[in-house]
């Protein structure tokens, strides 16, 4: 999601160098967005495979709203598994920065492809079909993307063919069906999105699948013309596609396709009706090929459109409708209609000329003004109502009045709706966890609160040379120098001291790089030693070679902190889980130690939130249907994990909750009364 942002300097010191970031080596930065920076990286534990790492910007690392939106993107992506949706490899926090990891796609975005002009019919069919399938998939799982646009559609080219795969990305402002928009994820009184792709109802804060249907219509328009609807001057579009665009971008959500599956079916019908080759471009349709099919005089009525005659006439009053396609048992029997085309009116002057417009925050009043200025495919002059040639019979009038009264009563009952918003409980937690680091285990064990106590061994060899100071036995005048035992002992002592300092320094550095802590002081033993020449030999110098081995016990600081966090979450209680943003873990402190065990104290604190699952929300819906509003509110406040001070039950009218579960919209809100988190003293 590209949001408006100021340019940032290259972080992490990346200027042609590779920098480590947790389990990844960052190679170069490939994109910067409003929330994060995207890097090409290599994953160390996956044999150096190339991945894309998105890291929250340093200036937003501690911004609560940015962190929640970043977490929302990762949480939604983690539960989606579809061939046309970019999967999530990993999500976590490193060096105080949230990050998420996805496959690295080299093919660019649909926005970059559209800069070269409209797509061929074959490309449109291949890419748009895959995109709508991905949107249909997320809708069935209760997710509304809300920011569909070409820059959020990656194009992945297969290595062994010309096949191009769609990869839908960026769920940063996605919402869930059945849940209200979460206020902390947007600015007060403002909508977040990309104006040219935002459905009109977004101005009223409505989040529904119809938002994405509208955006798909705009994207299809761009594929056909290479431009946005507000930029289309004299664009020619085949008539079968016109009906798809009109229903997708209808101002009233009720006039749009009911689902992405329905949109896909109509698109397939329109594509079959075109009768074109896959390589043909929409703009290449000739006037003769696309002339409208003559309509018999008996079927003609007052015309509601002007078909382009000379090239200079580039405006029409309305869009011609596509005749309904007869249903057939198979594709071969499908009737092929002549390919009509129309000339779209030029824009009135759009507010955004870039089809790769940024995601932005817009006030509702400004958004309504922007949307009201759009001129699209859906504006039609009102059709003149034909006068009835026969007077209505009085008996039919009476029957009609009775039917209207009965239908009004039932419609009144069906129009009632209720909105329920529940805030889950939160619990502050803090304690000092006692762990044991011991030998004999390979991995951390939650049941015994133990982590491995490991041993690091290093060996080093050095050679020292010094003067020989001995003299031969019974020689008193002008005696030659010979090697003495004192000469050898002195050199051995010097070599040992030097090796101990070097080994200790190397072992300390090695453990720091591993995120480990040395316990006590290392021990040293001599593994091998020699000297020359031999004792008593005549020589001016003597050389000593010594090999020393150092051994130290250590424990992993990261393993201790991770185990302490899991132990705290275990104490939170059934149904509660730690909120990552508010979890803090201190440094382990050694309390006592022996040769085989070490006792550690780890301070840890956080906030646990009750998880209201879809099953629990459905159960609440079943119980409160048909209740009075106050009774429903009382019932909900008594449920486990519900904050009794933050339960809202609203009905469209009256004092009763609807009796049908489909008329009750229930969702959760993020807690606002988050207690302060403070680490205890170890």
State the main characteristics.
single chain; 682 residues; alpha+beta; Phosphorylase Kinase, domain 1; 4 domains; 12 helices; 26% helix
What is the topological layout?
Elements: E1 19-21, E2 24-32, E3 36-43, E4 49-56, H1 64-78, E5 90-94, E6 97-103, H2 110-114, H3 121-140, E7 143-144, E8 153-157, E9 164-168, E10 175-176, E11 191-193, H4 209-225, E12 236-238, H5 239-248, H6 260-274, E13 341-343, E14 360-362, H7 364-372, H8 394-414, E15 418-424, E16 426-438, E17 450-452, E18 454-467, H9 485-513, E19 516-532, E20 541-556, H10 557-571, E21 576-578, E22 584-585, E23 589-593, E24 597-610, H11 614-624, H12 629-637, E25 642-651, E26 664-668
Parallel strand pairs: 15-26, 16-17
Antiparallel strand pairs: 1-2, 2-3, 3-4, 4-6, 5-6, 7-10, 8-9, 11-14, 12-13, 15-25, 16-24, 18-20, 19-20, 21-24, 22-24, 23-24
Helix pairs in contact: 3-4, 3-6, 4-5, 5-6
Describe the structure.
- The strands form eight sheets. A six-stranded antiparallel beta sheet has the order 1-2-3-4-6-5, covered by helices on one side.
- It is α+β, with helices and mostly antiparallel strands and 682 residues long.
- The longest helix is centred in the last third of the chain and has 29 residues, at 485-513.
- The chain is elongated.
- The chain has four domains: 1-104, 2-Layer Sandwich (Phosphorylase Kinase, domain 1), CATH 3.30.200; 110-294 and 312-380, Transferase(Phosphotransferase) domain 1 (Transferase(Phosphotransferase), domain 1, Orthogonal Bundle); 418-425 and 608-668, no CATH class; 430-603, no CATH class.
- It has helices spanning 64-78, 110-114, 121-140, 209-225, 239-248, 260-274, 364-372, 394-414, 485-513, 557-571, 614-624, 629-637, and strands at residues 19-21, 24-32, 36-43, 49-56, 90-94, 97-103, 143-144, 153-157, 164-168, 175-176, 191-193, 236-238, 341-343, 360-362, 418-424, 426-438, 450-452, 454-467, 516-532, 541-556, 576-578, 584-585, 589-593, 597-610, 642-651, 664-668.
């Amino acid at each position: 999601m590209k949001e408006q942002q100021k340019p940032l300097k290259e972080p992490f010191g990346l200027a042609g160098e590779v920098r480590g970031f947790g389990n990844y080596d960052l190679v170069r930065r490939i994109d910067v967005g409003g929330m994060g920076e995207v890097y090409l990286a290599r994953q160390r534990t996956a044999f150096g495979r190339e991945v894309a790492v998105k890291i929250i910007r340093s200036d937003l690392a501690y911004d609560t709203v940015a962190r929640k939106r970043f977490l929302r993107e990762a949480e939604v992506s983690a539960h989606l598994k579809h061939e046309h949706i970019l999967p999530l490899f990993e999500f976590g926090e490193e060096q105080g920065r949230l990050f998420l990891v996805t496959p690295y796609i080299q093919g660019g975005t649909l926005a970059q492809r559209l800069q070269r002009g409209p797509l061929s019919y074959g490309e449109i069919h291949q890419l748009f079909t895959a995109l709508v399938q991905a949107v249909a998939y997320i809708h069935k799982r209760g997710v509304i993307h809300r920011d569909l646009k070409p820059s959020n559609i990656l194009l992945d080219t297969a290595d062994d063919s010309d096949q191009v795969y769609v990869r839908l990305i960026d769920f940063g402002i996605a919402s869930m069906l059945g849940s209200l928009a979460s206020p902390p994820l947007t600015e007060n009184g403002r909508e977040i999105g990309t104006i040219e792709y935002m459905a009109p109802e977004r101005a009223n804060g409505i989040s529904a699948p119809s938002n994405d249907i509208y955006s798909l219509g705009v994207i299809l328009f761009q594929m056909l013309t290479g431009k946005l609807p507000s930029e289309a001057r004299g664009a020619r579009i085949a008539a079968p596609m016109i009906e798809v665009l009109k229903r997708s971008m209808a101002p009233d959500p009720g006039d749009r396709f009911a689902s992405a599956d329905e949109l896909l079916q109509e698109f397939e019908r329109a594509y079959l009706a075109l009768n074109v080759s896959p390589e043909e471009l929409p703009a290449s349709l000739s006037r003769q090929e696309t002339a409208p099919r003559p309509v018999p005089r008996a079927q003609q009525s007052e015309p509601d459109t002007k078909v382009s005659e000379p090239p200079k006439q580039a405006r029409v009053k309305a869009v011609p409708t596509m005749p309904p396609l007869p249903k057939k048992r198979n594709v071969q029997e499908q009737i092929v209609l002549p390919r009509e085309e129309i000339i779209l009116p030029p824009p009135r002057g759009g507010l955004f000329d870039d089809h790769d417009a940024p995601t932005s925050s817009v006030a509702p009043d400004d958004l309504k003004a922007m949307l009201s200025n759009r001129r699209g495919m859906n504006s039609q002059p009102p059709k003149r109502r034909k006068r009835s040639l026969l007077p209505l019979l009085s008996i039919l009038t009476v029957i009609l009045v009775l039917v209207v009264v009965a239908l009004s009563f039932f419609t009144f009952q069906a129009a009632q709706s209720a909105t329920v918003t529940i805030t889950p409980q939160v619990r502050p937690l803090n304690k000092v966890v006692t762990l044991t680091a011991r030998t004999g285990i390979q991995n951390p064990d939650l049941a015994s609160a133990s982590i491995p106590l490991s041993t690091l061994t290093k060996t080093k060899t050095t050679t020292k040379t010094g003067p020989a100071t001995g003299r031969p036995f019974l020689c008193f005048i002008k005696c030659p120098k010979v090697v003495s035992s004192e000469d050898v002992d002195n050199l051995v002592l010097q070599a040992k001291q030097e090796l101990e300092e070097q080994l200790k320094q190397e072992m300390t550095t090695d453990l720091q790089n591993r995120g480990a802590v040395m316990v006590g002081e290392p021990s040293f033993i001599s593994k091998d030693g020699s000297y020359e020449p031999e004792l008593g030999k005549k020589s001016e110098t003597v050389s000593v070679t010594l090999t020393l081995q150092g051994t130290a016990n250590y424990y992993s600081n990261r393993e201790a902190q991770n185990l302490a966090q899991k132990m705290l979450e275990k104490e939170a209680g059934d149904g509660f889980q730690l909120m990552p943003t508010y979890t803090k873990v201190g440094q382990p402190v050694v309390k006592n130690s022996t040769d085989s065990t070490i006792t550690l104290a780890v301070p840890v604190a956080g906030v646990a939130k009750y998880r209201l699952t879809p099953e629990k929300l459905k159960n609440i819906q079943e119980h409160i249907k048909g209740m009075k509003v106050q009774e429903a509110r009382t019932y909900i406040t008594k449920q486990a994990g519900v904050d009794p001070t933050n339960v809202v039950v609203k009905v469209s009218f009256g004092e009763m909750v609807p009796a049908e579960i489909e008329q009750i919209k229930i969702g959760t809100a993020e807690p606002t009364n988050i207690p302060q988190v403070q680490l205890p003293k170890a």
